[in-house]
Amino acid sequence: MYATGLDIGGTKIAGAVYDNVGTELTRIIEPIPKDYALFLQLCVNMVERLDQACGAKASVGIGMPGVISRDGNTFYAVANIPFLRDGHPFADDLTQHLQRSVRVANDGQCATLAEAFEGAGQGANTVFGITLGTGVGGGAVVNGHIISGRHGMAGEIGHVALPHASAEDGEPLPCKYCPTGCIEGYLSGAALAKRYERLTGDNLPVADIAARAGSGEQAALQVVDAYCRGVAKAISAVLHTYDPDIVIISGGLSVLPNLLRLVNGYVRDYALFKDIETQVVAAKLGALSGLRGAAILGQQG
Ligand SMILES: [Zn+2]
Fold this sequence. Notes:
Layout: E1 3-8, E2 12-18, E3 24-31, H1 36-54, E4 59-64, H2 90-98, E5 102-106, H3 107-118, E6 126-132, E7 136-142, E8 145-146, H4 183-187, H5 189-200, H6 206-214, H7 218-242, E9 246-250, H8 259-266, E10 279-282, H9 289-299
Parallel strand pairs: 1-4, 4-5, 6-9, 9-10
Antiparallel strand pairs: 1-2, 2-3, 6-7, 7-8
Helix pairs in contact: 1-2, 3-9, 5-7, 6-7, 7-8
Bound molecules: zinc ion.
């Protein structure tokens, strides 16, 4: 039994095939073509090359950005790949060309699925993953399956209004989807950088702010501390809707110094009761979790 995953990013498609114990056998990467016909053809071609690499017809799962219906045929918000908004039944087209069922889900949901099976969420029943990066994404996995919802947007925590928002959270960046300050508006990488700039006048990338906080600079520490309180407020929305066994943080901002310690401390301030057992932990699988999760999704049929 072999499992192929495709991870469609902003500019590239990564594909890999895994054996039945999850060992990656081959990985390939291609740039995303400009129109749907070429895109479909490339996805088919990549799956067939991975079939050849493992010598079998592997199961197929696909992860990609945006809100994607459970059947993989409707795309509600795919900023990077505009031609997918034109109503192409992507999963059905792939199924027809490849003569096998194909599953498609949001990449954050796929990453959470991989973490639930093989990473920080192993053994937990309800796992919620949050990505803190250029954007803020999320996904829920319950009993080993992605919770998709009617449109596929279950777990899109970035576009929930920040709970308990107050002056201490600063000014949110505008979001093209949301009328008022959403979690992404407060907690994206750009929001953190803006906050630091408002305080110091220095316009720096997140990694530099993290380094300044790590070396004890007061302004950076103050911004990181406020950011972590914001993350805890965001997690309170997750706690009271999904009540997960574990919350897994991934993405570029998870490198902020003391993030997990601060968030685990503050999250109790916004929970219904103080002695909650839920732990907020770091993802274990790294940047390939979306690819691996896509393969697991395909295997689930
Ligand atoms: Zn938003």
